[in-house]
Amino acid sequence: MRRTRDVENVQESTFLTRYSPAPMSTPATTPSPAAEPLLPARLEPPAAVVHESPFRFLVSSGVLEPAARDALLDDFPRYSGAGFFPYEEADCGPSVRALIEALNRREVADALGAQIGLPQLGSHPTLVTLCRALNSRHGNVHTDSLAKIATALVYLEPEWPHGSAGALRFVARADDVDSLVAPEIAPVYGNFAIFKRADNSFHGHLPFEGQRRVIQVAWLTSEEEKLRKTRRGRFSRFIKRIAGALDRRWGRR
Question: Which site among 123, 195, 229, 231 is 20 to 30 Å from 23 CA-CA?
């Protein structure tokens, strides 16, 4: 198993290299209803790389079936606002629902958790949120709240011509988005990351405004926290809908 045990062993030149998706040998086509969008083998070494310092995280690419790409993009929710919103089955098409179901399987969570020091990760409740677009205020470096045990992100953009803007970064300091501890992760189709929440699990990205589709799965400390966060997310979505409607109506005047 490839592991990074010391930040000092990460060469400066690797910081300039972004994770990119595994090569696709055939064009994306709409899969059959029975197609499995998640490729679990890509969530373990040698495809995945596990880092142990300064906090535990795992990164991989090509974790999604190439033939499922078009269906996943078509089935992704068309939110009117920017930011993350709680998963609602009614918002999503069948392929996105299948992917979320796969990410929430106990065996998948436990296998991922074992690689970042959380062997029983699947025993914890999950909160799934989806994001279609960002605005420039998103991406500030943070650690995640104490209610989160671990967070996974799977990206869906077919290409990313925006350079470092919007690319996920794991960093050494809260006040320095350029203090990378691993190559930044472009939000392209099939790129994946999961990290164990810690007091120093700093992550974020450079400002970006526009479409950036991603599914986030967070494993939480309790069902109470899941309920609280879900309610807050739904309220935020409601407010954004009102704000968007007002902007569309009055912004044209």
Answer: 195
